[in-house]
Amino acid sequence: MIRIVVVDDQALFVDGMRMILEAQEGFEVVGTAADGADALAVCRETRPDVVLMDIRMPVVDGIAATRLIRSEHPEPPPHVVVLTTVRHDRAVLDAIRAGASGFLLKDARPEFLAQAIRAVVDGQQVIAPAETFDLLRAAAIVRPQPEWSVLAALTERERELFALAAKGRSNAEIGAELYVAETTVKTHMRAILSKLGLASRIQLIAFAYEHRLVQ
C-alpha cells in the first residue's frame, strides 16, 4: 500500500484528489494539509511514502515545505511530487532543487497521476511533462559553455549512465542500451547521485541542463 499525503490550500481540489487516489488499487490517502506548515506536522505523524505538494500556499509555500520534509525525515524521506496549474512555472525548478521527485500539472489524467506516483516510489524513471524540459532548457541558456568539470568525480561508466539518465531514460532502458542488468544500473545510479550531491533522477536532469551537459 502506497501511503499518500495531499497538500493544497483549495479544499475542493484536495477532496477530489482523495477520491481519485483512493479509487486506485494500492493507494491510501493518510492525511491532507492546507499549507506547508500543516504538511510538516501531518508528515511527521503519518510517515507517508509520497506527498503531492502544491507550490503556492499561505504560511509556508510548497518549495520551503519540500526542502523541510526531505531534510528532517529519517531515511528514506517521502517522495514529493509537485502539482501546479501553470505549464511553464519556473517555481518548479526551485522545487526540484529543494528535493522534489517529480512535477505534474493539476489537470493530469488519473491514470497518469497513478503511474507517476508508482514510478517515483519505485525509483525506476522520471515522470516529467514536456513543460519541465522547456523550463530546463531555458535555465541552461545562462551558461555559455558546457561545464564538464562538474562530472570529475564520476568514472567513465558512470558518465555513460549519467548521459542517458539526463535524457530521461529509465533504468530498464539504460540497461538495455548498455547491455547490463537493471540492478547494476540502480547501483551505478545511487553512486552517481551520491557523488554529485543529488537526491533524485529529476534533480540529475536539472543538474545536467543547468550545466549544459545535455541538449
TrEMBL record:
Entry keyword set: DNA-binding, Phosphoprotein, Transcription, Transcription regulation
Domain of life where this protein originates: Bacteria
MF terms in GO: DNA binding
Pfam families for the chain: GerE, Response_reg
Domain Response regulatory as annotated: residue spans: 3-121
Domain named HTH luxR-type: residues: 147-212
Residues annotated with 4-aspartylphosphate modification: D54
Signal sequence interval, chain numbering: none
PANTHER family: TRANSCRIPTIONAL REGULATORY PROTEIN NARL-RELATED, TWO-COMPONENT RESPONSE REGULATOR
Stated name of the protein: DNA-binding response regulator, NarL/FixJ family, contains REC and HTH domains
Provenance organism: Agrococcus jejuensis
